[in-house]
Amino acid sequence: MAGTIDIDSLIQIVSNGGKVTTGIDVYNSNGTLLLEKTFIVTSTKILQLIKESGIKKIPLSADGKSGIWDASGKKISAGPKGPISESRQANADEMSSISLGISLTTLGKRLNEIDESRKLAYENYEVAKKCIKKALNDIKKSGGQFDYAEVSSHVSKLAGFLTIMDNPFSYLTREILSCDDYLYNHSINVCTIGTAIMNKFNIIFSTMISGHLNSSENEAYDPFKKSSGMPKSIYHHFQKDELQSISLGFFLHDIGKVMVPNAILNKTGKLTPEEFDTVKKHSYELGPAIIEKNNLNNPFITNIVKYHHSGLYPDEPHCYPDDGQPEKIPLYAKVCKIADMYDAMTSKTSYKEASNQIHAVTEIFRTYARKDALLQYILQSFIKSIGIYPPGSIVFLRNRQMAFVLESKGPLIIPFTDADGKQLSYKPEPLDLGEDGCDDALKIDNRRSIKNPREVYDLLPSYLKTAKD
């Protein structure tokens, strides 16, 4: 099979229970990987996103590695006038490569979408990790120099992927047993979380401003057209190129830590006041020095590097640099601080274990709620991006079972213990707690103390392990 197939035809086939594998990597105009060549598409979510990116036809390889099947398993050819169903059944090899069932329920499709998002996210994550490793190692070897153009190109593609896929990295398992690559992982995670928050903020805040500007009591007078009122245009607080610069700033926010001695950075015990003063310099002294040494004239990056530990409200403790004027800290630097806090709380470091994601969300919300109006929009965007029950978090059900959150929407959970806290001997079906008629006994019990991932790691079955053994 070779050539191309119309994206709408492919969406129709998959929506009816069919499957496709392209045999060719599919990229958007920015070079962002949208679909990996060996991946078997079983839901329309990724195809819809590909269509929204402007791609109208999907390429199919000529080397026999591509394939399209209908819901009954029959091979479909992509003819010049559209798909043509072949009379023969897909052979045993073809069918064995399709591990998921032919008839998919709504829940099954959601699980497939999660699997598809997770695989694409992993591939993009690994590319980003190689990029930040190289940049930080170059800085350490050269005393401050790195290939900014290469990093910028990678982050531009990463930001495009994050925007298209709507925070796909939330489905990736988090490292809770090792902190060997913490700085690299943290840089990517803050970029991921921060970009998701910024995209959500831009929608929420811009919609609010547009609604205000377009309301009847705020109609503007046009001297050239006396009868006309305010045009019904959409306001955008941040433009696309600004958002890309902000994502780049998130990616590089901790760049100054490369110049902090490893003995201090990886210390397992409590830092002395002198050591903590050295660590603090990574933001307002060491980081900006690297930015200046590379002649980077980008205020978004500079502000994020310098102010991502600054106070978000007057007299907030343990902040630096502390100039006592949080209202002058750029909004995007405040978003970076929220993303930085969340990832630091939910990741294992040299001096602490990873916290439960639900605890981290709750703690951040309680810390910054009702401090100022703009901060509330940032918090709202944070909650909507991460979710009250983030993927990978552990919850108690009212029947006393513990469950693993697969997706915050619903949430979609899978129990892994019985009511006595013992690991289940079988793999139960996932439960969507957002469905109508869900048994009250299976709903989340918010009265029970939440567990840290490390505390229940030994109880998790292999298919739910959140880190490598």
Write the layout of secondary structure elements.
Blueprint: E1 3-6, H1 7-15, E2 19-21, E3 26-27, E4 33-35, H2 45-52, E5 57-60, E6 67-69, E7 74-79, E8 82-89, H3 92-96, H4 106-142, H5 148-165, H6 182-213, H7 240-251, H8 262-265, H9 273-293, H10 299-307, H11 331-346, H12 357-368, H13 373-386, E9 394-396, E10 402-407, E11 412-415, E12 431-432, H14 453-456
Antiparallel strand pairs: 1-5, 2-6, 3-4, 7-8, 9-10, 10-11, 11-12
Name its key features:
469 residues; alpha+beta; Hypothetical protein af1432; 43% helix
In brief, what are we looking at here?
The protein is an alpha+beta fold and 469 residues long.
Query: Roughly what is the average pLDDT, rounded to an integer?
Result: 83
Note the overall shape. Answer: globular
Number of domains as seen in the coordinates = 3
Strand arrangement in the largest pleated sheet? 9-10-11-12
Helix-residue proportion: 40-55%
Report low-confidence residues grouped into runs of 5 or more.
85-103, 220-224
Beta-strand percentage? 5-15%
* CATH architecture descriptor text of the largest domain: Orthogonal Bundle
Number of DSSP helices? 14
* Named CATH topology of the largest domain: Hypothetical protein af1432
- CATH H-level superfamily of the largest domain: Hypothetical protein af1432
Describe this structure in words.
The chain is of the alpha+beta class and 469 residues long. It folds into three domains: 3-98, no CATH class; 117-386, Hypothetical protein af1432 (Orthogonal Bundle), CATH 1.10.3210; 394-464, no CATH class. 43% of the residues lie in helices and 10% in strands. It has helices at 7-15, 45-52, 92-96, 106-142, 148-165, 182-213, 240-251, 262-265, 273-293, 299-307, 331-346, 357-368, 373-386, 453-456, and strands at 3-6, 19-21, 26-27, 33-35, 57-60, 67-69, 74-79, 82-89, 394-396, 402-407, 412-415, 431-432. A four-stranded antiparallel beta sheet has the order 9-10-11-12, with no helix packed on it. Strands 1-5 form a two-stranded antiparallel sheet. A two-stranded antiparallel sheet has the order 2-6. Helix 5 (148-165) packs across helix 7 (240-251) and helix 10 (299-307) packs across helix 11.
